[in-house]
Amino acid sequence: MDYETPLFFHVMQYADAADRDVIDMVSGNPDWEPPEALRNGLREYADLEPDRFQYAPSEGLRELREEIAARRGVDAEQVVVTNGAGEANYLSMARALERDSGDEILLTDPVYPYYPGKTTMLGGIQRFVATDDEGYLDPAAVRAAASDETAAIVVNTPNNPTGAVYPAETMHELVAVAEEYDAILISDEVYDHYGLSGAFASALETDSAHRIVTNAFSKSMAITGFRVGYAIFPPELVADAKSRHMLVNVATTRPGQYAVLQALRETGPEYYERNRKRLRGRVETFTDALEAAGAEYTTPSGSFYVMARFEGYPGTLANVERLIDEAGVAGMPGEAFGDARSEWLRFALVTPRVEEAAERLAAYFD
User: Where are the alpha helices (DSSP H) in the chain?
Assistant: First the structure.
């Protein structure tokens, strides 16, 4: 099998090896503090009895699953705690393909590159639906692309890389398309706390046996290294998902789940609003500099990312490496996200050096 390995780690390693100072705007690793309650939870855990250092229940700590379920308005038995959103998406795509209701996975273009890679790994067939220039998905275009061979429709809102936040009507219509073709809508909502426009709508708002929602605490709590995520399955699909999870991972980190549970219970909304405010400021700073440099750019309604296009400088891996070497700024090539943004570069605004990075780019392209 030819695996489609995403370029993120290649670019990060190239930047790390550069013989100069490089501002990292490659990956979505938040640079701000996690909740204080999470740190306290880890400290508490270190003093627990030895039995707490053994395997957690495979589907996740009962208390954490109940907390997630209460917040999302579902039954705790529908929740599987996973090794980050990455595994949650893997389990969801696998369950969709296992239903023998087609082998095609409908993906957006541009697309988060782990989705097509997982599709191939699971033996599915990739099919792409283009978004508009601002990254929004037209449900009518999805309906036109769907067929009896459609096993799943995978979307990400707020979106990486475009920053689009799909409105409630779009999510409702996407569920309807999935129902019409006996497919599964898989909605990756890992950036749900970063709806900068305030318009985020979850697929859970539409009750259906044809939708799975995935998420994680990696972004919302600034803990990408913890690998605590979850998937919410319809009751008819959850049993086999739990079995696959057990076979692939056995269980997810027990200390991480304990600390996340403490943070969920003790962290108020001001923590999340503070981080949204920080990101809004960075978006303004970065896009103002891009405007001054004469670049085209996106203004995200959610997530961490701005895409930019500089005339005569397409979004290739070679150009990203050149930007690292000559400007000292590391972004991602647009070609990594599909054909639709191959002329663009993507920058993650999760560094306190956003203003400096913007100045370097403006000077480089002057």
Answer: 8-16, 36-46, 62-72, 84-98, 114-121, 139-145, 168-180, 238-249, 254-266, 269-292, 317-327, 354-364
Task: Give the SS3 label for residue 152.
Answer: strand
For the chain, where do the domains classified as CATH 3.90.1150.10 start and end?
8-34+269-364
- CA pair distance 152, 107, nearest whole angstrom: 9
Cβ contacts of residue 268 below 8 Å, gap of 6+?
none
For residue 1, the model assigns a pLDDT of 66
pLDDT at 197: 87
pLDDT in tens, 74-93: 999 999 999 999 999 999 99
Class of CATH domain 8-34+269-364: alpha beta
Which CATH code, of 3.40.640.10, 3.40.718.10, 3.40.50.300, 3.30.720.120, is assigned to 54-266?
Answer: 3.40.640.10
For range 314-343, the mean pLDDT: 96
Alpha-carbon 285 to chain mean position:
23
